[in-house]
Design brief:
By secondary structure, the protein is α/β, with parallel strands linked by helices. It folds into 2 domains: 86 residues, Dihydrofolate Reductase, subunit A; 103 residues. The chain is built from 6 helices and 8 strands; from the N terminus they run ααβαβαββαβαβββ. The strands form 2 sheets. It has a 5-stranded parallel beta sheet. The two termini are 29 Å apart.
Amino acid sequence: MSVDGKISTGDTDAMDFDKDLPRIKGVREGLHQYYELDKKTDLYTLNSGRVLQKVGANEKKAKVAKIPVSFIVIDNKPHLNSTGIDYLLRRGKKLYIVTTNKAHPAFKRKSEKNLHVIYYPNKIDFQNLFLKLKKHEKIRKITIQTGGTLNAVFLRQGLIDHISIVVAPALIGGKDTSTVIDGESLHSVKELVKIKALKLRKCKILKNSYLHLFYDVINKKN
């Protein structure tokens, strides 16, 4: 994220950190450090279909390098098309599509042995989803790499235990530009319980004015 908490350079899908930060002098020089840390993700990573579409998952690729990571994708609209599903199946070890959309293209690929479609008829129950993944798939650690809206849902439901942030030396601004935590604003003092306090575990000064911050989330209600 930027120093002011932005995770995009603007308010449209055409604006994107991966494409835009390499163009900015004073930021691009240290950007490689984020990608080096990103390679240390857990063996299960959770993304949204919108984020994957934004980074080009739906574009055809001749060669795809296999990695030992399994993808859990929240995708209701859907944002992923058949090309995107094929790419993720070729790219990762397993692919879990979580959706409320009966017409999701993943249903046409259910015969794939490394594809699991988890369907919720109305609204995704994320606490149920995480318990299901733990009980039936034996998944104990997941790296969440979604946008600000889903991050807010997970945080406020007490589903995030740790936060790892790479801070880029930039101020972006823009009231409609996504931040690490978006979602609905709080409207009253009674909702202050939704705010999660953090305990700093690690603060590392990286090269080129970058920072790596690691926090524990305090999920206690009192």
